[in-house]
Design brief:
The protein is an alpha/beta fold. Helices cover about 20% and strands about 15% of the residues. The protein is built from three helices and four strands. α3 links the parallel β3 and β4.
């Protein structure tokens, strides 16, 4: 089994934000936590409103406060060409646990949580 790459980790964001086809979590076996750069650029549009952006940023912040590690933090992304746009960059939260709100609730934004598992046989348990 190979190592996950950022491209693999960002696949959910290739879907439209208005679809439920994207996964909000993934399980990662501890032995496969090494990330490699793909050199690819990620392009995202803004979220639909200021309140949507505020909700996404609040969910990320709450996840970090509960103990998640922000491997990639998109809360402060700015797009100079669109200073009034409601942008949130790709966010990867690691070490999420089943008791955390970011594990239980879907975040309608470019956020994915990674849950550590000792074995892939433990996924979904």
């Amino acid at each position: 089994m190979g190592h996950p790459t950022p491209r693999q980790g960002l696949r959910p964001w290739t879907q439209s934000r208005q679809t439920c086809a994207a996964s909000g979590r993934c399980s990662v076996q501890a032995a496969h936590r090494q990330w490699t750069a793909s050199g690819r650029r990620v392009e995202l549009g803004p979220v639909v409103s200021a309140s949507a952006r505020e909700g996404i940023v609040a969910a990320i912040t709450h996840g970090i406060e509960e103990g998640a590690e922000a491997v990639l933090d998109g809360r402060t992304v700015q797009v100079p060409e669109y200073p009034r746009g409601y942008f949130v960059g790709p966010t990867i939260l690691d070490q999420i646990q089943p008791e955390m709100r970011v594990y239980k609730e879907e975040i309608f934004g470019p956020v994915i949580g990674m849950s550590p598992v000792s074995s892939l046989d433990r996924v979904g348990v």
